[in-house]
Amino acid sequence: DLRLLAHLREVEEPFESEQIGSSAMPYKRNPMRAERICAIARHVMVLAQDPLHTAATQWLERTLDDSANRRLSIPDSYLALDGILVLVENVSSGLVVNPQVIRKNLEEHLQFMASETILMHASSAGGDRQELHERIRGHSMAAAARMKDEGEPADLLERIAGDDVFGMDLEQLRELSHADRFVGRAPQQVDRFLAEWVRPALERLEAGANERLGKPDVRV
């Protein structure tokens, strides 16, 4: 998810002043730590198959063919997981969130997501649902084509406001497509997760533990 959001430039992982994102394209800021986390995680998931296959062929525990496998898979698993945790700590402690980019992306796409809400509102006001649906579909296709073909911002709300069938002005449409209407219980879920999981974990850490342990090496 972090890598996908980094692609959209909504978030960025820590980027050192001398860090090079790409040897060919100097402007790039690839999420290399997140990529490394995913790569090592795949290795750990494959290692999890080792004990399953070993247990399936134990010959009533009369063979030592598990020994060499254990000496490889168990240490590798611990070392790989430790490396992942070091990288996750580094990324999470220096994560950069770009609210303006998030807002821009929302403004560009939220009006399309709000089309169902607009349809329901207009239907409840007495409009013919089938006709409204067809008109929104047409306006949506035209607004999307404007974005893709002309490189201009989507104007779905303006198109609907100019359609007398809906009987709504631009201010009403903007209210119906406000981001707060689409977050559901996300704020409460975040607060609960922080209260039940994150804060207790932080409280268990001893003061100054990171200083005593030293700064972890992210060159994993």
List keywords for this structure.
220 residues, mainly alpha, Fumarase C, Chain A, domain 2, Ribonucleotide Reductase Protein R1, domain 1, 2 domains, 2 strands
CATH architecture group name of the largest domain: Up-down Bundle
Which fold does the CATH topology of the largest domain refer to? Fumarase C, Chain A, domain 2
Ends distance: 21 Å
If strands are numbered along the chain, what order do they take across the biggest sheet? 1-2
Question: CATH superfamily membership of the largest domain, which one?
Answer: Fumarase/aspartase (Central domain)
Query: Helix- and strand-based class?
Result: mainly alpha
Number of helices: 11
Please give a structural write-up.
- This protein is mainly α.
- It folds into 2 domains: 96 residues, Fumarase C, Chain A, domain 2 (Up-down Bundle), CATH 1.20.200; 83 residues, Fumarase/aspartase (C-terminal domain) (Ribonucleotide Reductase Protein R1, domain 1, Orthogonal Bundle).
- Helices cover 64% and strands 2% of the residues.
- It is built from 11 helices and 2 strands, in the order αβαααβααααααα.
- The longest helix is centred in the middle third of the chain and has 27 residues.
- The mean pLDDT is 90.
